[in-house]
Amino acid sequence: MTQRRIVRTVITAFALVLGAFFAPGFGVFGGASEANAATKISHATATSMFRSSNITWSSSGGCSDRNNPTCTSFEQLNLSSAKGAQTLKSASGCGLNITGGTETGHAGGTYSHWNGYKLDFGKGTCLTNYIKNNFSYAGIRGDGAPMWKSGSGNIYADEGNHWDVLYYNCGGC
After folding, report:
1. Which of 3, 28, 76, 121 is most buried, by CB atoms within 10 Å?
2. What averages of pLDDT result for each successive group of 10 residues across the chain (173 residues)?
3. CB-based contacts of 85: which residues, under 8 Å, 6+ apart?
4. Distances (CA, A) of 38 to 12, 42, 69, 72
5. Exposed e or buried b for every residue in 53-84, given b needs 16+ CB within 10 A?
6. Judging by DSSP bridges, how do beta strands 77-78 and 40-41 pair with one another?
7. pTM, to two decimals
8. What span, in angstroms and rounded, lies between the C-alpha atoms of 170 and 49?
């Protein structure tokens, strides 16, 4: 084997090792594909976290049953989503009211409400201004909702009467 070939082989092997370490879902720099590695929390844990950050929640049905679409449930919410809401509250200084959690009735998919990646927040001038002034416009989602992307990669979609937030991570907590 020539010296050039040996160097190329070593560089390729090194790149493969680094790629495995820094690939989404591995090591400290995991990204959006950590769907299977998410830490799930209970409704009680989430409400305790939200209460401690002065984040409110409400539901049209006044309930928290995950299997009832008129409820707002946090059962099986990702810990990073709950922490992301706390980060948003702290960074924005806005009043936050969660109107949608992990309950049935939302669109499906890997990064869905049901799988603990999304929360809906009631719209308010403070929150809307914070999102639009601090995050980058990211285009129009397939359903027509305009999106903004935070520096940490979370997606904020304006669904008209609320913000649909996709938490890939805790937003810099």
Report:
1. 121
2. 43 38 35 63 98 97 96 98 98 98 95 97 98 98 97 97 97 89
3. 50, 53, 55, 96, 98, 119, 121, 165, 167
4. 31, 13, 23, 20
5. bebebebeeeebbbeeeebbbbbbbbbbbbbb
6. antiparallel
7. 0.79
8. 13
Reference 34, options 157, 163, 148, 153; nearest CA is 153
Contacts (Cβ under 8 Å, ≥6 apart) of 3? none
- Distance between CA 18 and CA 36 in Å, rounded? 21
Give 149's Cβ-side CA count (13 Å radius).
Answer: 10
Q: What is the pLDDT of residue 74?
A: 98
The confidence score (pLDDT) of residue 36 equals: 53
Contact 117, 96 (CB under 8 A): no
What DSSP line would sit under 137-159, residue for residue? EEEE-TTS-EEEE-TTS-EEEE-
